[in-house]
TrEMBL record:
SUPFAM superfamilies documented for this protein: DNase I-like
Cited InterPro entries: AP_endonuc_1, AP_endonuclease_F1_BS, Endo/exonu/phosph_ase_sf, Endo/exonuclease/phosphatase, ExoIII-like
Region (Disordered): 267-317
Listed Pfam families: Exo_endo_phos
Protein name (database record): Exodeoxyribonuclease III
Residue ranges the record marks as coiled coil: none
Gene that specifies this protein: xthA
Organism for this UniProt entry: Gordonia paraffinivorans NBRC 108238
Keyword vocabulary terms for this entry: Hydrolase, Magnesium, Metal-binding
Family: Belongs to the DNA repair enzymes AP/ExoA family.
Domain Endonuclease/exonuclease/phosphatase: 30-277
Cofactors demanded by this protein: Mg(2+)
Length: 317
């Protein structure tokens, strides 16, 4: 297994691989904010065995590169994955796992801003050519509150990313975008008034990728369905399906045309010690499980939108 890390390569460098591996046939791509990969190992490895994704984008690994390799390197190699990981200890952290090639690895992206100062680059982006496609694993800054410096950093970060995407048509942007694209992507728009993730500037920054020709393949396939990827840990939020859709896969035209299925693996959010996010899965060229719906399995008893008034944790009294 070729293990490429930010510590080895430097935050803005590109790996020195020779040639690019092109994958022929179907390809399953998934993205998952695991919210501490060490805590999620008992969930992650069985999920890899069950769903058998060819490329996996992970966010919030919360480990250094060395620690990631120590706790997962052997298990991932056994499953045939090459790994590119960019760690930051107990914060942030992104990874790419690929069984269809891992070429031209780039840590961060050209012009990526830092925080709290321009020279302090966080572990929020890694990309590589996998199966002939440029695939990004992204953990977009949260923004905190609309009047926080972190919010302006978020907008600058997204603007810089849009400028850095060299060939949108063969690119996949995968990850926790920390933006719900529309009101239909949150359980109750009124509950989010005054909060980040839903403000017009954030949504406009995300929509810029659409202007580049990139398509939100889950929403495109399921335009009017209730689809969420994140549910707060508080009791009942998941079971009532009071969530948000903030984990996205944006695909360039050439890639989006190959999509045969696009869905949220809600099963991975169930059970013992889950992440608060569920994986998003996209099947290219062939859907081994069929076109199985937007959320698998669907929630059994979701609350009706607006019927349950829930105050967000960060809502001021």
């Amino acid at each position: 297994m070729a293990h490429i890390t930010g510590e080895e390569k430097g935050r803005r460098s590109v790996s020195g691989s020779v040639g690019v591996s092109y994958y022929r046939g179907r390809m399953r791509v998934a993205t998952w904010n695991v919210n501490s990969v060490k805590q999620r190992i008992p969930r992650l490895l069985p999920w890899l065995d069950e769903r058998r994704p060819d490329v996996v984008c992970l966010q919030e690994t919360k480990l250094s590169d060395a620690a990631f390799d120590e706790v997962l390197g052997a298990d991932l190699a056994e499953r045939g994955y090459e790994v590119a990981h960019v760690g930051q200890g107990q914060w942030n952290g992104v990874a790419l796992l690929s069984r269809v090639g891992l070429d031209d690895v780039q840590v961060g992206f050209d012009g990526m801003p830092g925080y709290p100062d321009p020279d302090t680059l966080e572990a929020r982006a890694v990309s590589a050519v996998c199966g002939g496609l440029r695939i990004y694993s992204l953990y977009v800054p949260n923004g905190r509150t609309p009047d926080d410096d972190h919010y302006h950093y978020k907008l600058e970060w997204l603007e810089s990313l849009a400028r850095a995407v060299a060939d949108p048509s063969t690119t996949l942007l995968c990850g926790d975008m920390n933006i719900a694209p529309a009101d239909t992507d949150v359980f109750d728009p009124e509950a989010f008034v005054g909060h980040t993730h839903v403000t017009p500037p954030e949504r406009a920054a995300l929509a810029r990728f659409e202007s580049l020709g990139m398509r939100d393949v889950v929403r495109e396939r399921w335009p009017s369905e209730r689809v969420y990827t994140y549910w707060d840990y508080r009791a009942g939020m998941f079971h009532k399906d009071l969530g948000m859709r903030i984990d996205l896969i944006l695909a360039g035209d050439q890639v989006a045309g190959r999509v045969q299925a696009a869905w949220v693996d809600r099963k991975a959010r169930k059970g013992t010690k889950p992440s608060d996010h569920a994986p998003v899965v996209v099947d290219l060229d062939e859907a081994p499980d069929g076109d199985i719906g937007p959320v698998v399995p669907p929630p059994s008893n979701p609350a009706k939108p607006g019927a349950t008034k829930v105050k967000l944790p960060q809502t001021p009294e």
